[in-house]
Amino acid sequence: MRGLKAMLWEASVLDPNEGIRFHGLTIPDCQKVLPSAPGGKEMTAESMLWLLLTGQVPSPEQSRQLSAELAEKGELPDFVAKLIDSLPNTLHPMTQLGMGVAALNHDSAFQAAYERGIKKSDYWTHTLEDCINLIARLPALAARIYRNVYHPENSLLPVDKNLDLVGNYSNMLGFGHNEHLTEYLRLYIALHGDHEGGNASAHTAHLVGSTLSDPYISYSAALFALAGPLHGLANQEVLRWQLAMQKEIGNEVSHDKIKDYLWKTLKSGQVVPGYGHGVLRNPDPRFIALQEFCKSRPELQSSPIIQLVQQTAEVAPDVLKEHGKTKNPYPNVDATSGCVLHHYGLTEFKYYTVIFGVSRALGALTQLVWARALGLPLERPKSYSMDALEKLIKSS
Ligand code: FCX
């Protein structure tokens, strides 16, 4: 279905060569015009949310008001906290996130209103309420999963009403003291927010939402699409792969040694994680923006894992071109997103896709609001049996 134009997606458009634009704005445009958090430089998640939902750039005051609203709504209901606490810490964090998000539909305004009986033209208001509530609660849910799985000895901080969404997330993860990581998370979460409609997670939210499932269960389904290694789980896989490369190569890193490791991966029949894309045909501008972040900070420039990621990006495109299969031999965002988290101490790479999941809610959920406002129909493509396909080909 690559290249098949079959969806309406208002918030962002992905050009194969140029990359993503959010309501017409490139990533550098967004970095220039979207408000940052007090004391920070990077655009906030709520300013990206505002842009995606309304097509307008919020003022700093509007962005702050949205932060306050999200913080106000950010605590988890007790039963969801208990549900998450009851899960074994060996259960993958993405499975836990999907379960927690689905359980939050207990309080769905859309579902309650639908049961009461509402007009189709009113669906969107209740969808909007659910989407805002869900985005508000994601940091507390995701931080609880992190605490339970990796640091059960720590107590969880409550939502701080004075912080922005990502400031709170970082704080609840236990990294509130680390302003560098918090700023990186702001950039990461704004950048991963949307990537037009056809990617597997956003498309899943759209498909499930088209049955009038409420936003919680629609987004829960999307998270399980994101959890696949060809999609969001790639950022976990990249780090695992780069660390294995680092172990094998040792301290004497060279382009030749990286090249050998790349060929070893390809010859064993595996994909090189963090490279290739279903749509992009150039280096991903999200990759470039995260690399720029690394270049602007001396402590990141001297980090061995970040240097290895940068050197890999210099070598891999030629190797993939020579290999000859991949349509896009360039790095995607996942090639670099995890190494900065690792450098700043968030080293548990099985958790990385959860951060992606907190972010992708911005785009997938705002588009659900628009789908309900525009009365978009049930998505139901036609399929063929092999027999019917063969007949079709013979007759053409
Ligand atoms: N390493 C090795 N082989 C690759 C490759 C890679 N990085 N990328 C593509 N290929 C192979 C495919 O496996 C396919 O082989 P096949 O003909 O034997 O099935 C062939 O090249 C053609 O694939 P292509 O059309 O280029 O890519 P697709 O649209 O089918 O798939 C993804 C796109 C992203 C899934 C693919 O490039 C891939 O597997 N990359 C590695 C995983 C990854 O980084 N995923 C994250 C993507 C994204 F950024 C995100 O969603 O987060």
TrEMBL record:
<dbReference type="InterPro" id="IPR016143">
    <property type="entry name" value="Citrate_synth-like_sm_a-sub"/>
</dbReference>
<dbReference type="InterPro" id="IPR002020">
    <property type="entry name" value="Citrate_synthase"/>
</dbReference>
<dbReference type="Pfam" id="PF00285">
    <property type="entry name" value="Citrate_synt"/>
</dbReference>
<protein>
    <recommendedName>
        <fullName>Citrate synthase</fullName>
    </recommendedName>
</protein>
<dbReference type="InterPro" id="IPR019810">
    <property type="entry name" value="Citrate_synthase_AS"/>
</dbReference>
<dbReference type="GO" id="GO:0005975">
    <property type="term" value="P:carbohydrate metabolic process"/>
</dbReference>
<keyword id="KW-0809">Transit peptide</keyword>
<dbReference type="GO" id="GO:0005759">
    <property type="term" value="C:mitochondrial matrix"/>
</dbReference>
<dbReference type="GO" id="GO:0046912">
    <property type="term" value="F:acyltransferase activity, acyl groups converted into alkyl on transfer"/>
</dbReference>
<dbReference type="InterPro" id="IPR016142">
    <property type="entry name" value="Citrate_synth-like_lrg_a-sub"/>
</dbReference>
<comment type="similarity">
    <text>Belongs to the citrate synthase family.</text>
</comment>
<dbReference type="InterPro" id="IPR036969">
    <property type="entry name" value="Citrate_synthase_sf"/>
</dbReference>
<keyword id="KW-0496">Mitochondrion</keyword>
<dbReference type="GO" id="GO:0006099">
    <property type="term" value="P:tricarboxylic acid cycle"/>
</dbReference>
<keyword id="KW-0808">Transferase</keyword>
